[in-house]
Amino acid sequence: MSELKHGFRINTEMCQGRMHCMRACPTRAIRVKNGKAHLISELCIDCGLCLTVCPTGAIAATTLTFAELDRFKFKVAVASPALFAQFGMSDTPESVGRALLELGFDAVWEYSVDIELIDRAIAACVKKWPGPFPLISNSCPVVVRLVQVAYPSMVEQLIPVDAPREIAARELKRRYSQELGIAAEDIAAIYITPCLAKTISILQPAEEEKSHLDGAVGISQIYNDILYKLRTGLTRENASRKFSFSGEMFHWGAPEGEFPSLSREHYLPLTGLTDIIKVFDDIEKGKLRNIEFLECHACQGGCVGGNLTVENLYVARSKNLRLVANMPRSVSKFEEEVQRRYAIEDFSLRRSLKPRKIEGETGDLRGRVLRRKKAEELLKALPMLNCGLCGAPTCKSHAEDVAASRAEIGDCIFLSPDRIVHLRALYLDHQDTK
Amino acid sequence: MTAMELLRECYEIQGKNFDKAGEVSGEIKVVLRDLGIDAAHLRRLVIVAFEAEMNVVMYAQRGTMTLIVTEEDINLETTDEGPGIPDIELALQEGYSTASDEMREMGFGFGMGLPNMKKNSDEFRIESNVGKGTSVFSKIRLPAHE
Ligand SMILES: Nc1ncnc2c1ncn2[C@@H]1O[C@H](COP(=O)(O)OP(=O)(O)O)[C@@H](O)[C@H]1O
Ligand SMILES: [Mg+2]
């Protein structure tokens, strides 16, 4: 596999080495050396917690900027249902769609059909699946990466059905190139994303195929612009544009789960990485086999609580529930389109997912055992305080880093008390000058 | 001839402590995963470890699980002080269980533990002394040595 990419960047200039990110990282992928945070790329699953907790704003999502979008001839927005939960109760999905056109998109994709298609494809896949159970949803890129990194034995349980955003991008390129007579390469499918993880799933899909999408714009990036358009009114041309967003769409990414049609007994929706990790631990031990499908979203509260959303999670959720209740359902035109496409499209993931190779796995078994023993030996000399001053999140990770020749044991302040002078220079003196 | 032993770790298991049930197999999983054992073998090992641990928790007073890694295979030896198994043949049958209703309510006791452990092992053996305790041995061979 080519070099791993991520959906965010750490700006070393802005980083003050305050270690919030290092302590929050669920896969211990961050180290803070010499007052600057850096990433152990192979361990990072793009959950974005680091970005959320950074006190100095030094970690930023690598979404597309509006200027970058201009290089495409025909730009189509595929908006996550979470977008529509960000605005006031009276701002309809239609008006938000129109505001996107005002911002310069040439079209806004009616995403409900694709979501419904994947809903059906998943239900069909679950029905046919010979085991092992439970199957795990793959629409959240963080969940996929968590399994690839920390639960390699469960990779085959990630459901082999593509994400609706991919299916949408594939279809919109086909449709517009046919209708407008432009080459598919000139059409850009841009996902309006509630989290940074989706940018990485576009840049570097976990199944090592090329994404049908061409980029992502964060909800927080365009929130103000949309709000402004909603409040100042739209041009006549756009104000008359019609969309049919169906109510089914708003189940997608919601904490209550996306599959109201699956049986409650055998279907479990989960949100939040901490809870997901607990449940995955159980599954790995062979528990929960009576569950057929586990729907997991790394962000607490699902995609409406994504790390690039703006509105308070609970307010957004309540708006989302309203949308589910009030939007028209399965108008016959919608149902017709779903049936037409369901009959002719293939929704399977184009390539099977594999565990991610991590550094601990290189070398032979003997070498790896030796390294482990060395780390255990080194750990005995450490204070087990997890103070982080060595630059690793825990004493254990420091010992492992040393065993893997990634750090010096003497970085521990208990072993080298003199290091406090260095740390004072880095942290205190540097604050004086502010 | 036995292969060169690389690693041996022993873990204590407390009988009747359902709160902690699964911790030992969880730890073993992390060790094996960090050693880079491939996904398919890891999956089998975790199932064996978990079921062995659960049987000690459910039926015995206390026990230990020893993980032995050699260059060719991975071994799990679970030994307990407990009631023992009077009829091993019968205990190995799918669906046979003496678990109490209480345990079943907690989601254990479907009588599939020992059969699944056997199915997932390359070598499997039970030794038991009624009134004293039980030992269960499982060997899973690594890819190059299957
Ligand atoms: N360590 C043990 N000590 C005593 N009895 C055991 C032990 N392990 C298994 N057994 C007996 O064998 C039966 C079958 O075990 P198993 O296949 O794991 O199913 P389950 O635990 O679901 O009953 C148990 O119900 C119990 O009677
Ligand atoms: Mg059992």
The helix content of chain A, as a percent range, equals 25-40%
Major beta-sheet overview of chain A: 4 strands, parallel
The termini of chain B sit apart by 16 Å
Integer average pLDDT of chain B: 92
Q: What is the overall silhouette of chain A?
A: globular
Q: Which percent band covers the strand fraction of chain A?
A: 5-15%
Q: Please work out how many helical segments of chain A DSSP would assign.
A: 16
Sheet with most strands: strand arrangement of chain A: 6-5-8-9
Structural Rg of chain B: 15 Å
Report Rg of chain A: 23 Å
Shape of chain B: globular
Indicate the low-confidence ranges of chain B by residue numbers. none
> Strand order, biggest sheet of chain B?
1-2-3-5-4
Number of helices of chain B: 5
Q: Overview of this structure, please?
A:
The complex is a heterodimer of chains A (434) and B (146). Chain A starts with 7 loop residues before the first strand and ends with a helix. Chain A has 16 helices and eleven strands. The mean pLDDT of chain A is 89. In chain A, helix 4 (93-102) packs across helix 9, helix 5 packs across helix 13 and helix 14 packs across helix 15 (395-403). The longest helix of chain A has 17 residues, at 112-128. Chain A is α/β, with parallel strands linked by helices and 434 residues long. Chain A has three domains: 1-62, Alpha-Beta Plaits (2-Layer Sandwich); 66-344, no CATH class; 363-434, Orthogonal Bundle (3-methyladenine DNA Glycosylase II, Chain A, domain 3), CATH 1.10.15. In chain B, 34% of the residues lie in helices and 30% in strands. Chain B is built from five helices and five strands; from the N terminus they run βααββαααββ. A five-stranded antiparallel β-sheet of chain B has the order 1-2-3-5-4, covered by helices on one side. The radius of gyration of chain B is 15 Å and the shape is globular. The mean pLDDT of chain B is 92. The interface between A and B is medium-sized, with 23 and 26 residues. The complex binds adenosine-5'-diphosphate and magnesium ion. Magnesium ion (MG) is lined by residues 51, 54-55, 113 of chain B. Magnesium ion binds next to helix 2 of chain B.
